[in-house]
Amino acid sequence: MPRITLGESSTNGIAYYLQLSAFVHKAFGNSGSELVIHNPGGTTPQSFFDALPRDCFVTFENFASQMWAPSSIFKNPAYAGTPRQRQAAIIHDFGGSTTDLVNITDTVGEIEDMKYVFVTTQSDYNTFPTNWQTFAAAVHGTNAFMAEHPGWYPRI
After folding, report:
1. If exposure means fewest CB atoms within 10 Å of the residue's CB, which of 39, 112, 151, 155 is most exposed?
2. Is residue 109 part of a domain?
3. Known Pfam families for this protein (predicted)?
């Protein structure tokens, strides 16, 4: 599955992102397996989800301690009707325990129904995270649990 991330996307000028997304999907054959991920760095309006139905949006990129802040995707009413399975959470500077990591992947996947999550110990994306194996195991565990209970998770 080809994946393209458009970092620092703007939520202004939807026409530009419609063209860019169409170009990327076409470049990879419009097979439906390609994934375009927009990272606007702020609130993504419902109109973007509606206009770009095959694309995903990073709607949380912050510290784990900010997950439940009033302005976060998890609490902000502006996101109440947005499709969570087309959203991604990037949690950086993670310093918690393995149990904390598992709780985050379970919460994001099982409770919040977000399909994409990345948790890193680093503050940047240029250094390999020290928690990579633990993170991969936590995601695998969350996915396995959800697969064992498909009635609880209708998108599976």
Report:
1. 151
2. yes
3. Spherulin4
Range of the domain at 92: 3-148
Q: Is pLDDT above 70 for 137?
A: yes
- As for how many domains the chain has, the answer is 1
What pTM value is reported for the model? 0.85
**What is the DSSP code string of the chain?**
--EEEEET--SS-HHHHHHHHHHHHHHTTT-S--EEEEE-SSPPPHHHHHH-TT-EEEEEEEEGGGTTSTTSTTT-GGGTTS-GGGEEEEEES----HHHHHHHHHIIIIIS--SEEEE-S-SSSSS--TTHHHHHHHHHHHHHHHHH-TTT-TT-
Plot region of 94 (φ>0 → left; ψ -120 to 50 → alpha; else → beta): beta
71-115, pLDDT tens digit by residue?
888 888 888 888 888 999 999 999 999 999 999 999 888 888 888
Tell me what the pLDDT averaged over the chain comes to: 87
Let me know if residue 87 belongs to a domain.
yes
